């Protein structure tokens, strides 16, 4: 997505790294491909999900896995903030040194002047709500003024997503507009959660009105890409699935355009 004010533009990209997967692929090769893709897009702001720190299952014996630091070593013009959502101790609490953390991150060419996170609620009796989740927010001081950017990775549970979407929106309201919300929401465009964030549904007396960036620009892309597919690599051959990753925006002024 690109914001425009007159002739100035700011490009924002969202990317789910899927931590160290697929395990059959050499991780350093995957990292190089990710860096190449990001450099080809040349975004000013990058929002990342499934970013991992691990001193256990990193696929190389030479270095430990701190993905955000690895990306930053290739993308030196960016500053970043990383927030783990959940922590695992694969060898039990008796060996707490061995740790795996996974979360979300925001990288920016421009100064990050404020950061906060929201710990989203979790229902431990819901087996689909299996991990802790967070929303990370950052105010970025851009040439067209401060922009509040958020990124998150939602639960597989529809009950959790509905609850967390309301929590997330109330968290966003504590930041200055304009807003940009990005993330892997683990749900499809016609779901109640997406309808709520776009203002088609009202929950708990709360009414929102954010724009789905894809819907705003899809008329500009070729016909084969009109659905904005998400690609999964769970199999040997990448397959198209319905769109699960989103970028929403809310502007305080009509001077800002997609």
Kindly summarize this structure in a few lines.
The protein is an alpha+beta fold and 258 residues long. It contains 5 helices and 14 strands. The chain has one domain: Endonuclease/exonuclease/phosphatase (Deoxyribonuclease I, Chain A).
Description of the molecule:
The protein contains 5 helices and 14 strands. The radius of gyration is 18 Å and the shape is globular. The longest helix is centred in the first third of the chain and has 15 residues. A hairpin with a 6-residue loop joins strand 12 and strand 13. Strands 1, 2, 3, 4, 5 and 6 form a 6-stranded mixed sheet that branches. Strands 7-8-9-10-14-11 form a 6-stranded mixed sheet.
Distance between the termini: 7 Å
Low-pLDDT segments, ≥5 res: 252-258
The tally of beta strands, per DSSP, is: 14
* CATH fold call: Deoxyribonuclease I, Chain A
When the domains are counted, the total is: 1
The helix fraction, in percent, is 10-25%
Radius of gyration, in angstroms, nearest whole number: 18 Å
- Count, helices: 5
CATH homologous superfamily heading: Endonuclease/exonuclease/phosphatase
Looking at the structure, what is the overall shape? globular
Helix and strand composition category: alpha+beta
Could you give the order of the helices and strands?
EEHEEHEEEEEHEHEHEEE
Strand content: 35-45%
Global mean pLDDT:
81
Largest sheet: number of strands, sense, barrel closure: 6 strands, mixed
CATH class term = Alpha Beta
């Amino acid at each position: 997505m690109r914001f425009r004010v007159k002739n100035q533009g700011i490009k924002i990209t969202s990317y789910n790294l899927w931590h160290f997967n697929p395990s059959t692929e050499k991780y350093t090769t995957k990292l190089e491909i990710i860096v190449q893709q990001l450099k080809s897009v040349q975004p000013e702001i990058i929002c990342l999900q499934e970013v991992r720190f691990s001193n256990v299952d990193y696929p190389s014996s030479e270095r430990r896995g701190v993905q955000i630091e690895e990306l930053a070593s290739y993308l030196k013009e960016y500053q970043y903030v990383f927030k783990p959502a959940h922590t695992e101790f694969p060898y039990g609490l008796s060996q707490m040194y061995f740790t795996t953390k996974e979360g979300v991150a925001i990288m920016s060419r421009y100064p990050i002047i404020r950061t906060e996170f929201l710990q989203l609620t979790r229902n431990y009796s819901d087996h689909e709500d299996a991990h802790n989740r967070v929303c990370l927010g950052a105010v970025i001081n851009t040439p067209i003024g401060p922009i509040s950017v958020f990124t998150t990775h939602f639960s597989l549970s529809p009950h959790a997503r509905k609850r967390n979407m309301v929590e997330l929106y109330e968290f966003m309201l504590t930041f200055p507009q304009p807003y940009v919300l990005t993330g892997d929401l683990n749900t499809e465009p016609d779901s109640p959660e997406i309808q709520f964030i776009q203002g088609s549904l009202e929950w708990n007396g709360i009414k929102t009105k954010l724009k789905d960036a894809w819907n705003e620009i899809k008329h500009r892309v070729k016909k084969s890409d009109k659905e904005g597919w998400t690609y999964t690599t769970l199999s040997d051959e990448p397959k198209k699935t319905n769109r699960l990753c989103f970028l929403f925006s809310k502007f305080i002024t009509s001077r800002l355009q997609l």
